[in-house]
Amino acid sequence: TRPIKGFRQIVKIFFYAMGIISIVALFIQKDPLTILAGMGAVAAVILLIFKDTILGFVASIQLSANKMVNIGDWISMPSKGADGTVIDISLNTVKVQNWDKTISTIPTYALVSESFNNWKGMEESGGRRIKRHLNLDVKSIHFLSEEEIENFEKIRLLKDYLIEKKNEIRTNNPEGEIPVNQRRLTNVGTFRKYVEAYLQEHPKIHNDMTFLVRQLQVSEKGLPLEIYVFSNDQEWANYEAIQADIFDHILAIVPEFNLRVFQNPTGDDFQNSAN
């Protein structure tokens, strides 16, 4: 409905303008087309001179009407080298104070014509996303032996899971079946469950938001195990400390599951293999 009304208004303005031009042409005894041509030339010159101002004016209206950005919002725009807080919005420019305290000046129309991220939604959500993965060496993945299962049952975070899985396996695996036909536990699956339980108990993880510990596509760099969760502390320094704390623990605990983190060979690896 609104676009139709807007179109009608434009049509009315057009006919009003044509009427005024006809009256002026009648008084000065000139062809209306001549007046229109002259006005078009003047308009072209004005548009050329005031291009940035006109674009900025239109862009500022769009930014305001669509609530795209406000003073105090954290935005990032890599194409303009901006990543910080908006401190000023004017007709022609938007000023962003970056985290290193430098100030980036962005043309207002660039925020409409190019893409940028506004982190206001994240700040209002109560959580901040943690999305990282580590690559596991596929050569270290294997089925768990009875001895390994007994050792893992001593881990508090895994005890209930392993008891449940052992009962499930006993129920679904008939006696006398060869190992290939049986359901068995793996060290990588058990490790994934450990990471899930560890994160669920972590005091800085937001359990009411998206919570995933998942495997990604295997590649030449191994099996990626991705953590996709949200911290309940959004402050930058605290957020980075939470991520570091989580991965400090996870990387240190990997060998306990007889797994290896994959990394490309270094000079020391080649030297040791030569020796």
| Cα gyration radius (Å) | 32 Å
Order of helices and strands: HHHEEEEHEHEHHHEEHH
- Spatially, the strands of the biggest sheet line up as 4-3-2-1-5
Tally of contiguous helical segments: 10
Strand content: 15-25%
Q: What is the share of helical residues?
A: 40-55%
SS-based class: alpha+beta
Can you summarize the main beta sheet?
5 strands, antiparallel
Task: Calculate the terminal CA-CA distance, rounded to whole Å.
Answer: 80 Å
Q: Mean pLDDT, as a whole number? A: 81
Number of strands: 8
Descriptive key words:
disordered N terminus; 10 helices; 275 residues; three-stranded antiparallel sheet; five-stranded antiparallel sheet; alpha+beta; 17% strand; 8 strands
Compact description:
This protein is an alpha+beta fold.
What is the fold's blueprint, element by element?
Blueprint: H1 2-28, H2 32-49, H3 51-65, E1 74-77, E2 82-89, E3 93-98, E4 103-107, H4 110-113, E5 117-118, H5 120-125, E6 128-136, H6 146-152, H7 156-172, H8 187-201, E7 212-215, E8 223-231, H9 236-253, H10 267-274
Antiparallel strand pairs: 1-2, 1-5, 2-3, 3-4, 6-8, 7-8
Helix pairs in contact: 7-8
